[in-house]
Amino acid sequence: MISTIVLAAGMSTRLGRAKQLLSIGETTVIERVIDKLLVAEVEEIIVVLGHEVDKIEALIENRNVKIVYNSDYQLGQSTSLIKGLHLIDDNCKGVLCMLSDQPLIKVETLNALIAKFESGEELIVYPEYNGQRGNPVIFSTKLKSEMLKASGDQGARGLLTKYQDKSTSIEVKDQGVVFDIDTEEDYQELLELIGY
Is residue 29 a contact partner of residue 22, using CB atoms and an 8 Å limit? Predict the structure, then answer.
């Protein structure tokens, strides 16, 4: 079983407004991310909210997701990861850590990551696009106790270095794994790439 934790609590300080709420046509960034996860081969989706919780929750509460509020979201992304980890199903074998600002990611990429994780013994599986490491990353629940010790904005990234020999990547033809929204220019590029 694969559980997904969507890290959607951040303040988007570089952008100056909540990137989760940015419009993409008739939908928003967070809705687009969650809707892709809902058709991917994940069994559980946990969305961790913080900043702008009421507005974001109103958009996604009717979807088949578990929503949890992280009151400590200002202390960094790792606090959201930890909140989500406390809710994963006991039968979960892997945790797909999804950023809330990756609306370009393809469902095929998500499913390829899951298939790679489920077919091997690696502790960590991540995508690469043109040789650049991307997101999301799947972590084995064998690393849960270490993930629960994460701090700051690094989340579980330190485990990628620590367990490099027990990690594997898949090369994908999906710019979405390396594209996120941090600036107004990123948002404009997103709209151009999607065709709005």
Answer: yes
